[in-house]
Amino acid sequence: MNISELFEKIQDCFMPEDLNGEITLHGNCITWSYTPDNENIDEQKFLDEDSDALFGFESTSSEELLQEVYKNDLMLLEELFDDLEEIDNWSFSEPDIVENNISFKIF
Predict the structure, then answer these.
(1) Order of strands, edge to edge, in the sheet holding 22-26?
(2) How many CB atoms lie within 10 A of CB 74?
(3) What is the pLDDT of residues 38-97, one digit of tens each?
(4) Tally of domains within the chain
(5) Range of 13's domain?
(6) CA 61 to CA 24: how far, in whole Å?
């Protein structure tokens, strides 16, 4: 399966709301990226602060939240690749975090 076919399979198998991140095709690789919108950040921060005060927990950093989103979507993509018997044919780059964005490449 080539990169374009793989990209189409991902689009066919996942609705936009199934993955937190956005999948795009760039030449010979697929890029997954996630940037939370400001409403979600403010709401999540408020909820974290509220529950933290209630239960005495330390709040989660934005980098930890980005890593959590990355791990969830990566797991879904790896399961799909395994189902397609393509897991050994593709590589996933390490996640790259810049400010409030996390991304990785599939090649």
Answers:
(1) 22-26, 29-34, 101-106, 96-98
(2) 16
(3) 544 444 443 444 445 455 555 457 889 999 999 999 999 999 999 999 999 999 999 999
(4) 1
(5) 3-106
(6) 27
